[in-house]
């Protein structure tokens, strides 16, 4: 009887391990889908929204694949491209701030630091908004709620920043590695939002 219990425990442990590897593989595949969908540059938020929805279905043991991802992406990009455009505009402003710092403008270091922190906060809020996006949802409302959660849930926001740091390090080590890791960032955002919702 003891052997039977040990065998059942080993089987459960093995199935959990197999499920964990399957989810990890799904994250990497989703990262590639996100990277391809984000190629037009302004479609990044919509790509992350579709990727987050796909991973959410995977966690809920629902069926879904590339077809469902594409349908979610088409729905998210209708207004999501404006969010992507605003993100690039914010990046341009921060780039100008950094240029001001390098030019030795008085107060430049402070302005540059504030600009970089604001950009990081905006990226985290955008990822958190994408993680809870649903077809028909207003991006403006999602971003407003995500901005509040970014400030009120610093632990979750820090986790997403850590995921972004992994992407940057992967790209520095080998650019192609950064593509699948994008799925891990989407998974981190989904996990953070679920954790916040349970709280």
Can you walk me through this structure?
By secondary structure, this protein is mainly α. The chain has one domain (about 1-199). Helix content is about 85%, strand content about 0%. The protein has seven helices and no strands. The longest helix is centred in the middle third of the chain and has 37 residues, at about 65-100. The radius of gyration is 19 Å and the shape is globular. The relative contact order is 0.13. The mean pLDDT is about 90. Keywords: Membrane, Transmembrane, Transmembrane helix.
Kindly report how far apart the N and C termini lie.
40 Å
Largest sheet: none
Q: What is the averaged pLDDT score?
A: 88
Query: Could you tell me the strand content as a percent range?
Result: under 5%
Q: Give the class from helix and strand content and strand pairing.
A: mainly alpha
Total domain modules? 1
The gyration radius over C-alpha positions equals: 19 Å
Helix-strand string: HHHHHHH
Helix content: over 70%
Q: What is the number of E strands?
A: 0
Count of helices?
A: 7
Low-confidence stretches: none
Keywords: Membrane, Transmembrane, Transmembrane helix
Transmembrane segments: 21-42, 80-98, 110-133, 158-191
